[in-house]
Amino acid sequence: SVPSAILVAIAAGARRGILFRGGVAVENLAAATQFAFDKTGTLTKGALVVARITSFDSQDENALLQCAASVAHFSTHPLARAIVAEAERRNVPINQATDFLNLPGLGMEASMDGNRILIGSRRLMHDRGIAIPAVELTNEGEVWVANDHALGVIYLRDEIRPAAKRVIDFLKRSGLSVALLTGDRVGPAAMVAKQVGITDVRAELSPQAKLQCIHDWRTSGKKVAMVGDGINDAPSLTAADVSIGMGARGSDAALEQADIVLMHDKIENVEEAFVLSRRARSVIRQNVIISLGVIFFLIISALAEKINLTTGVIGHEGSTVVVILNGLRLLRSRRN
After folding, report:
1. What is the pTM assigned to this prediction?
2. What pLDDT, on the 0 to 100 scale, is given for residue 336?
């Protein structure tokens, strides 16, 4: 009754680019009451592009870009990839850097030409005691570049996935709570949340702070589903009741922890996966009722001597065929 429906649900998901890593993922997703989304690369396309560059020293934009790209090319984070792509577009050479160190939720650093170069968020600059010049606050992403003082800032822009709002609206209509967890600044986070319809926005979070949010929800009795793609999301994905990773652009760390992988990197498959898991749970309940009902009827009939051995075998094996056929209905379920 149960394995047949689970196996068919996993097969149906695979047909749509949704990889369930076992039956537990199917059941846990159906029971989720709280969804948490990362921002960059999840609700947004993650195809960041450099919008503009501001340099504080006498060096020009390309020199600052070269410095940042020389450190960023070690990372797979969408912000780092955008910086490296801009350097390649401008034919800016990348210098050799050593002693690279990733700083989850903050940025990264490496040694270059005898200097320790930092690139990352405002918080990283504050943590290292680097003064930040007064600049205009925008809703664009920021990557600060510094050594012993701030060298400049690179602004990046991203696009929201077209289907993101539809997915959030669907989850809210289904009675689920939805939150945005991001390490980005409050301004860009609030802008994205407003466009997709999320009111619970938690910005400027470190990976540990994201993890604490998951623990708090679970402690309150909620079943948490976390959707993310970056290395900063890996701890949260591990702690959630069920985790969903974006497969095309997601980091290896995130995909290793994900219970469900969206192979085509489509945010709309979150809705598909949730609907499929709910249908699978419904079919499992139907199959259990059918199986127990047939067995109960056969036992009563046998005790009352109203059934012979042949009829009993046919009834028992026939119920097996029925539950398998009922489970196969999941292959036809598809939302338009």
Report:
1. 0.74
2. 40
